[in-house]
Specification:
This protein is of the alpha+beta class and 286 residues long. 35% of the residues lie in helices and 20% in strands. It has a 6-stranded antiparallel beta sheet. GO terms for molecular function: DNA-binding transcription factor activity; sequence-specific DNA binding.
Length: 286
């Protein structure tokens, strides 16, 4: 590990362009993102916290084509690429991990696995997805995916309830507490936590923390820190600083200045023993 000095990291939020999923695929996908090939390998790259599971299709510049699944990321990590990199990212909708991938989202948190190694129906398309162009992905999935999905009425109900819960807390200046959100949705707090754990991979509280820090990241440099803190729902600037350090690994000023970033070299995912009962291969931490 090295400590970066002097260059603010590039983040996916600033480089990715996204296309919303068509209505027919909305139960399972929210968008298709393109991270263009980054050729300046001297600038650190920040993998920021995110509360979604994604199917990532690597481009040829990044090595052999492969379809990977990136689970929710609870903390940021920083890398310095040794060659140009870019990818396509299919972002899964809340509650879609089980129907598509055949596992709980919680089993994928802070993990990378190959799509083909998962037991769900999406694994059947892994080899074909990597060969498709960006404009071919949604039409292909519209044609092939719906007839492969098998959901019970209870699963559909849970997925729709989770989507409503996520819409209720995302982007709010003052996020609802877990008891208040559970009351609004007419479920117990335990049910709500279980919904988030299995359908998203993080708790409701951690989802809110990630949502707020991502909003701050998109607005860095546009307003004073005190204004950013209030706009994102923090008590004050010191609360924002503490949360930023906890999730991003460095203080806000260090992040903006590119100083003291814990840089790790980019490396392929490492696969090892299976997770008991699922057949999923464990990967190295993201």
């Amino acid at each position: 590990m090295t400590i970066a000095q002097g260059k603010a990291p590039v983040t996916t939020d600033l480089t990715e362009s996204a296309t919303p999923a068509p209505e027919s695929l909305r139960p399972w996908f929210t968008e298709l993102g393109l991270i263009p090939t980054v050729r300046d390998t001297s600038v650190p790259f920040a993998h920021v916290p995110q509360a979604a599971t994604m199917i990532v299709l690597r481009t040829e510049d990044c090595g052999p084509r492969d379809a990977l699944v990136l689970g929710p990321r609870t903390r940021a990590s920083y890398a310095e690429a040794d060659k140009p990199m870019g990818c396509l990212r299919l972002r899964l909708a809340p509650g879609a991990v089980g129907p598509l991938l055949g596992v709980s989202a919680g089993e994928l948190t802070d993990r990378i696995v190959r799509l083909a190694d998962l037991p769900g129906p999406a694994a059947q398309f892994a080899g074909e997805l990597v060969e498709l162009r960006r404009d071919e992905l949604f039409p292909y999935l519209e044609q092939r995916l719906p007839q492969r999905i098998r959901e019970s009425p209870a699963q559909v109900s849970h997925r729709e309830l989770l989507r409503t819960a996520v819409e209720s807390v995302s982007g709010r200046a003052m996020p609802a507490t877990v008891p208040a959100l559970a009351g609004t949705l007419a479920v117990s707090e335990r049910q709500l936590r279980n919904l988030f754990s299995s359908g998203i991979g993080v708790s409701p509280k951690h989802y809110t923390r990630i949502d707020r820090i991502r909003r701050v990241l998109t607005r860095l440099g546009t307003s004073p820190w005190s204004h950013l803190a209030v706009g994102a729902g923090y008590y004050d600037q010191s609360h924002l600083t503490a949360e930023f350090r906890s999730l991003m690994g460095v203080a806000p000023g260090s992040f903006l200045g590119g100083t003291r970033l814990p840089i790790e070299p980019c490396r392929p995912a490492i696969y090892g023993r299976t997770i008991s009962g699922t057949g999923i291969l464990r990967s190295a931490p993201l």
